[in-house]
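Case study 2.
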Amino acid sequence: MKTLDVKRIRIAFDEQWRVALAWDEGPAYRHGLGRLQGTKAVDVIALDAETCWLIEMKDFRGHRIENRGRVGPALAEEVAAKVRDTIAALVWTQGRAECPAEPELTRFLKVLLNQGARTGPIKVVLWLDQDRQAPAASAVAELIKRELKPWLDVRVIVTSTPGQECWKTS
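Prediction:
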């Protein structure tokens, strides 16, 4: 079982997951498009048997005042920009000597690019932990999907630590 610790949150990936990487902390992103000012990235990329998962982690616990009003359109735009830049950065990694995890990234990108031929969309997850309940998760998910809709067909899931149902691969 592989575990990733991101922003005080631990995610465990069982053996069904083919790839699970802390993307925005990894060398392929940091030494690639991450060097460009203004480029953003999701925290984790993961690949199960057929689905690409782009996961953004937000831990607003203990920071309620600073993040008041942030859960809504601004957060949806931020997540959509991170998804867009992550996909561009993944494409950039192909054939680059400075990308030590290239075989894993190639597998991930191959499935990502073949999603149009599959019945299931790419899954974008916003893992949002906060002290108090904010707007309904479905409303935030719809805002993110609307931001991505013009160019990417995705399924968006907004969840938190207690609701880990999105990690089931079957």
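The first strand starts at residue 2 and ends at 6.
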